[in-house]
Design goal:
Number of helices: 4
Oligomer: single chain
Shape: globular
Number of strands: 10
């Protein structure tokens, strides 16, 4: 399955799954929450994904993936997004912490339907001092409650969101990496 990139031309809103108001807006070269403040409040590494990837998949380049929790500023409903950040053969801390020098935003789809994958998602493509970085943002998805005392938790009755995130990323992993490899060969 191939990941297809279409540039964000004017803007595209990621919407609350409860009230459908925009909680995050992507423009061609920048992103912002409409209220100006943070739109996500906590996150945790997608449980079990690293162990499920084979050695070749883990060695292909830097990758960071997490499930992030947010609250809609309009209806107060909770949601989660799944983030997968991919880069070249660099230290993951360097990739995550790198300040972008150039940002481009794309709406992505896959060339064939897949039940574990949303039909459309946002990709932030950044040039950084350590190389190009892709940050795939899937969601927002509706949840009940996935927060523990003060942190996002993968245990208890809310484990379903973590399982869905892991299955989605495993389904897409090779396609996301192939898309990254194709895109770094393109001078933008």
């Amino acid at each position: 399955m191939e990941v297809c990139f279409e540039p964000v031309v004017q803007s595209h809103a990621l919407t609350c799954p409860t009230c459908r108001e925009g909680v995050f807006r992507a423009h061609a070269a920048r992103c912002e929450p409409p209220t100006g403040g943070p739109w996500l409040k906590d996150g945790g590494i997608t449980a079990g994904l690293h162990q499920a990837l084979n050695e070749e998949q883990r060695a292909a380049g830097a990758a960071f993936y997490e499930l992030l929790l947010g609250d809609c500023p309009f209806c107060r409903g909770s949601f989660y997004v799944v983030e997968a950040m991919l880069g070249g053969p660099v230290d993951i801390e360097a990739l995550v912490g790198a300040t972008p020098t150039k940002e481009r935003n794309y709406l992505c789809t896959i060339d064939q339907g897949e039940r574990n994958v949303p039909p459309l998602w946002l990709v932030q493509e950044d040039d950084t001092p350590v190389g190009r970085r892709h940050t795939h943002l899937f969601g927002p998805f509706e949840i009940g409650s996935i927060s523990g005392h003060d942190r996002v938790s993968a245990c208890g009755t809310t484990a379903e969101a973590w399982i869905r995130a892991r299955i989605m990323l495993l389904t897409l992993w090779d396609s996301l990496r192939a898309a990254y490899d194709r895109r770094i060969a393109v001078e933008i």
